[in-house]
Amino acid sequence: MIFSGKSCLNRASEKVTCDELLDNLLRHINENGKPSTAKIWKLVIDANLRSFFGHLRPEQVTTDRMRDYRDRRKAEDRSEATCNGELSILRTAFNLGRKCTPPKVERMPYFPMVSETDNARQGFLTDEQYTKMRDALPDYLKPLFVTAYFTGLRLGELLAWQWDQIDWDQGFITLHAKETKSGHARVVPILTGDMNEWLKWAHKWSNGCPQVFNRIGEPIKDFRWAWRKACKAAEVPDLKFHDLRRTAVRNMRRAGVSQVVRMRITGHRTDSMERRYNIVDTDDIKTAKTLMEHLAKS
Question: Quick check: helix, strand or coil at residue 57?
């Protein structure tokens, strides 16, 4: 009996699940992408996408199912940008499956993406809140918190730091290209005061651990419970770790650090992304009012 090419294709793909598509994507990104990207994508896939879509065949993934996924993630207090990013990973898995020979995906569904124009979070810390939050955290998390507050670096970049990257004499930390989201090496200053003191404290209690941020010799991994407890005690229950990044950009701008230098420190690659973190708050407006009144009287 002779089968048509289409019939053979249908039989070849009807046993494929989204689990297999996601596995293929992870293999592809491990072979062709950056280690940091591969690590983040694996976390997203294993924690969220696989449990919701993994058991489904590609043709069962409809636009309505993806909207249901978005609704579930938003109920977990995730932003539209996060949902878009996660669904984009799934779309990449489908595209790779479509390019296989024979194709593992016969039909590409419509992936519903939502505008992120008004999605930027407005959270940041005042100086008083910073002090309360620092004091509420357990000691092992204080070096990580303080460093993020002053430098605005991403959590993944911070957790990858090792002691041999620190030049204590010059007061700089070198980030290697493989450890940054942008894929570009850069240098970050160690500020005197809190940041310098807590980094030295972490070094004293590292017990030989190569990671800068550690818990008495063990690399820091999951600290969500301790973070939530400290946020409650410091009366900033909605604070996200990523809010420290936007706070650092705001503080650098107020200190007169130029945009190009701010971007070099934080790792922002485009003006538009950096501008999203440039929160203008009531204090900025008051300062502008004072300057304008001074100009009007002169």
Answer: coil
Chain-centroid distance, C-alpha 172 = 23
Task: Kindly list the domain boundaries of the chain, sorted by start residue.
Answer: 8-99, 127-280
Domain covering 127-280: architecture: Orthogonal Bundle (1.10)
Cβ neighbours of residue 17 closer than 8 Å, sequence gap 6 or more: 54, 55, 56, 57, 58
> What is the residue whose two structure tokens read 């203008």?
280
Pairing of the two strands 186-189 and 214-215: unpaired
The CA-based angle 7-11-17, given to 5 degrees, is 140
Q: In which element (H, E) is residue 288 found?
A: helix 282-297
Are 250 and 279 in contact by the 8 Å Cβ rule? The answer is yes
pTM: 0.60
Q: Tell me if 157 sits within 8 A of 267, measured CB to CB.
A: yes
Q: In the structure, how many helices (H) and strands (E) does the chain have?
A: 15, 5
Q: How many Cβ atoms are within 10 Å of 60's Cβ, its own excluded?
A: 12
SS3 272: helix
pLDDT, position 18: 97
As a whole number, mean pLDDT of residues 56-75 equals 95
d(CA 85, CA 41): 10
Q: Is the peptide bond before 102 cis (omega within 30 degrees of 0)?
A: yes
CA 82-35-210 angle, to 5 degrees, is 105
Question: Is the pLDDT reported for residue 28 higher than 70?
Answer: yes
pLDDT per residue over 183-242, tens digit each? 677 888 888 889 999 999 999 999 999 999 999 889 898 899 999 999 999 999 989 998
